[in-house]
Amino acid sequence: MNKTRPIALTAGATGAFALLFAATPALADTHTATVSVLHAIPETPVDVYANGEELISDFMPGTLAGPLTLPGGEYDLTVYPAGADPESAEVAISLDDVEIPAGADATVVAHLTEAGAPELTPFVNDTSAVPAGEGRLTVRHVAAAPAVDVRAGGEVIIDGLVNPNEESVTVPAGDVSADVVVAGTDTVAIGPADLTVAEGANTIVYAWGSADAGYELATQTVQAGASAPSGVPGGSAGLAADEGMPAPLVGLTVAGLAAAAFAGRKYATSRV
Amino acid sequence: MRTPAVVLVLGLALGIGTPVTWALTQPDEATGTTVEQAIDASSPSAMAPAPSPTAAPSPSGAVPPSPPALDLPPVTTRDAAPTVAAPVAAPVRLSLPARGVDAPLDPVGVSPDGQMELPEDVDRVGWYRFGPVPGDDGSAVLAGHVDDREQGLGALAPLRSTEVGDVVVVTGANGAETRWQVVSRELITKQVLPLDTIFGRDGPPRLVLVTCGGPFIPELRSYRDNVVVVAEPLP
Predict the structure, then answer these.
(1) What's chain A's average pLDDT?
(2) Would you give the end-to-end CA distance of chain A in angstroms?
């Protein structure tokens, strides 16, 4: 289990954000990054601009855009109400100098803070390998709500998660019934919802929404490194073994050689 | 006195002929291309790790000072509500008519010890359900016990004597058959089994049949090797 704290970037904040996306030097020959965008602000269709160009139009709450393959680099992201003219409209949210290095897999989430203010938070998606037969389950709290616990099949698997943090666990692959409760209680805030934790992948679950609009779950699946099993067993009796020559054949061989030796000796002595 | 000469010749023939004949009738350790070549032919990065974001951060000097000009790709959006994946149509039967193999298939996963799970019943064969369905891209793995102390020889015992060109038939969940042709059989020591290749999920469709073989090691109650057979789709 690991806890990671993404760098939260406040709406409309200025200045350079040293967003520490990590890149893989070994993959420096790939100059692109994989980027998804989740819209998790209730009741507000938006348009998303990257470096002044429209990236997603009429983006509906609860939908996921991408994955997009973008050149690695820094991006200025701006969100406007859907259909607004970017020349004149008031910016809903913006986030400058988001560094997306080549090789990274990231999701940018437009969501509400715990207090209910719109915000853009970039998350790095963990694509490292998981053991054979297992999947990674990552939960991100992007709802206007206090701390929560996340349960799978009624058991708490992640506790005390606060906006805008994430936490990952590795679990056996398969279908789970997940719900979100107010931290430390049995008061269900979201769900339960059935979802599939895919083997060899990172299944990312977002808890989003607000008290007024209601809370919901959103999911995203990102391929992680799959692993092979550690071996293939296969037999316990030795019935199919590659053995030495069977005893009767060994006997036949020995008998033949003995007869030959005996006869050879006799032959030799008979010549004397 | 010619009897000793006759006995000498016959004795030598028996003494030398018996082991030679026996050796010649044993199946070769391998036939066809090697397993790794057969699977890797067009998938050099069968299990290449996905790009990992956990390595060192990129040098900031490599980042262009101004935002790059965008050539934005078309964006698709989808509802992000939680979903349950549709169940995969598991294959149900495996047969190698030339070797007398005809066994039902069970979907299997991973044992607690990390090895591939196999059906307890040696007459049944396991399909590794986290890998592809036979016919999909990548390597579909079917494996079974070669024998059991109580149950005797298993369904896959004849795998050791398969030859290149043998036909393999897999019956899918809907009754449709896919036909395959053996291109490789190899006896590989378990410790050096190329697992990432055998269980690779990329590349062209391959069928990989695995059981145990080679010498039996009584102290470990296990065989030294795996018998690995690779088959390619028949048109």
Answers:
(1) 84
(2) 90
Closest CA of chain A from B177, distance in Å: 26
Whether B67 has its CB under 8 Å from any CB of chain A: the answer is yes
Q: How far apart are CA A77 and CA A69, in angstroms?
A: 16
Q: Name the minimum distance, in Å, from the CA of A90 to any CA of chain B.
A: 22
pLDDT tens digits for range A206-238: 999 999 999 999 999 999 988 999 999 977 777
Asked if B93 has any chain A CB less than 8 Å from its own CB, the reply is no
Phi, psi of A21 (to 5 degrees): -65, 140
Distance in angstroms (rounded) separating the CA atoms of residues B32 and B41 = 13
- Quick: pLDDT tens for A226-271: 899 999 997 777 787 776 667 777 788 888 888 888 888 877 777 6
Cα angle A214-A121-A36, degrees, rounded to a multiple of 5: 90
Cα separation, B49 vs A224, in Å, equals 8
Q: Name the residue among A193, A224, A233 with its Cβ closest to that of B50.
A: A224
> Given CB atoms, is B147 within the 8 Å cutoff of chain A?
yes
- Type of residue found at B78: R
Contact B63 A267 (CB under 8 A): no
Q: Which helix (H) or strand (E) holds B7?
A: helix B3-25
Do B143 and A195 count as a contact with CB atoms less than 8 A apart? Answer: no
User: Smallest CA–CA separation between B64 and chain A, in Å?
Assistant: 7
What is the complex's ipTM, to 2 decimals? 0.75
Q: Which residues pair with A63 in a beta bridge?
A: B79
- The tokens for B37 are 């070549």
Beta strands (DSSP E) in chain A are 2-4, 32-40, 46-50, 53-59, 63-71, 73-81, 93-100, 105-112, 118-124, 134-143, 148-152, 155-161, 166-172, 174-182, 188-197, 201-210, 214-223
Do A248 and A256 touch, CB atoms closer than 8 A?
A: no
